[in-house]
Amino acid sequence: MRSVLSATLMVAAAIFLGPGSSAQAQFTALPTTAGDKPKTVTTIPIRPPLQKPEETVNAMAQAERLALQSDLAWIGQYNGAITGDVSERMVNAIKEFQKARGGKQTGALNPQERGILADTARKRQENVGWKIVSDAGTGVRLGIPTKLVPQQTSDANGAKWTSPTGTVQIQLARRKEANPTTAKLAEREKKEPAGRTIDYTVIKPDFFVLSGLQGLKKFYVRGTFKGDEVRILTILYDQATENTVEPVVIAMSSAFNPFPSGAQIAGPPPRKTVEYGTGVVVSEDGAIVTDRQVVDSCLAIAISGHGNADRVAEDKDHDLALLRIYGARGLKPLNLANGASKPGVELTGIADPQNQGGGAAASSVKASIAQVGGGSDPALAPAPAIGFSGAAALDGDGKFAGIALLKPVVVAGPAAAAQAALVPADTVRDFLKASGVDAAGGSPDAKASVVRVICVRK
Fold first, then answer.
1. For residue 333, what pLDDT is reported?
2. Which residues pair with residue 175 across a beta bridge?
3. Model confidence over 275-319: pLDDT tens digits?
């Protein structure tokens, strides 16, 4: 048996080595030279190319880029058009913001930097009373710094907003003109009124922009036309106010919508006969804060599981309402201690019964914070489900960040207005304090502190 196995191995070796070869040849060692050392091989790691700041910003969603440009403009670092398009000017503005804070000038913001930028821009908007308004005479939608120019007059030819001393003036003019072009309109504005000194001109087929000096004031003009209807926005301001006003000018130029579509003019759709929202319990004795629009024009307001409620206070500027229920027990107010400025939040609310099979369970969803469309309150994206208006927003550390509100789909300026907004924590606390509510202490459990609000209308 052993001889058969040996023969088999020899045949296999002969087949492998080929004719004329011997099994011994397979194991012959290569000659070596005494003293040879193995050569050192140097390896060079291949790293992927670093992403440029422009590529990082361009990877953001369009709404986020618009919000970023808007915030940079509001803090005075960016003076370009707010279009969402990435440019060297935009990246340089980001670097200037980082430099001013003593950070590394990367040209792309980290989450903490983005949160600080958004918070700074929001405060500056609040300082000037920034609002998107519609002119009743023309239908024009535009942004107005209401605290800077509280005095308003209007007639068939337009409207005017002024500061008490005339240091800031905003004029909206309309007129009929045969066969207008932006070039003709710009040339006329250069000459009227007399004495204007022009230092900047842009003329496009659909609009024109001029800026310079008019006497001792700086001026900015943006105009356009549709058919034979001409509409022109003029902003005049003392040179001593330019640090405050120039960021506002950029925002006004972006928000200026001279010929809104029919849907924009029509305003929000009619309210539902029965509407559901979310309320946040803020005191053990029955105080609840919610969306003012949800409880507007109600024949009756009810809190699910607790009975009827009265609306006792409201903040029209931020669409907050304070409700009160009497004799309720077991309410768990939410801890309203302020969270840090962060770009992301968790919204806790109670969705419409139709969205949860008739149920009334509280749930939570994630959302990002951004400043879009020039509103005074930050936008939330994506918008939560119907029924979440009035929901509690908590930051990544579980601290109170504000109240979420759902908005009607209405376009304000060249960019669509946000479908959801966040009323910041400071604003909510100020409203409650002014309404006599002591919101100290409370539970960190948002699901235990939200209630369903039901409004019944005609």
1. 95
2. 230
3. 999 999 999 999 999 999 999 989 999 999 999 999 999 998 899
Contact 307, 325 (CB under 8 A): yes
Are 107 and 94 within 8 A, CB to CB? yes
Residues 6+ apart with CB under 8 A from 61: 381
The confidence score (pLDDT) of residue 8 equals: 42
CA nearest neighbour of 72 among 251, 255, 256, 252: 251
The DSSP secondary structure of 256-301, one letter per residue, reads -BSS--HHHHH-SPPPPSEEEEEEEE-STTSEEEEETTTTTT-SEE
pLDDT (tens digit per residue) in 307-337: 999 999 999 889 999 999 998 888 999 999 8
Q: Residue 94 corresponds to which tokens in the numbers above? A: 């980001």
* Cβ contact 237:168 at 8 Å: yes
* Pairing status of strand 307-308 against strand 300-303: antiparallel
Q: Which residues contact 7 (CB under 8 A, 6 or more apart)?
A: none
User: Which SS3 state, helix, strand or coil, does residue 144 take?
Assistant: strand
Coil, strand or helix at 185 = helix
Flag whether the pTM goes above 0.90. Answer: no
How would you classify the pairing of strands 310-315 and 320-324? antiparallel
53, 108 in Cβ contact below 8 A?
yes
Phi, psi of 377 (to 5 degrees): -105, 140
Low-confidence stretches of the chain (pLDDT beneath 50): 1-30, 263, 265-268, 373-375, 409-418
DSSP label of 334? B
Do you find a cis peptide bond into 193, omega within 30 degrees of 0?
Answer: yes
In angstroms, rounded to a whole number, what is the distance separating the alpha carbons of residues 425 and 442? 15
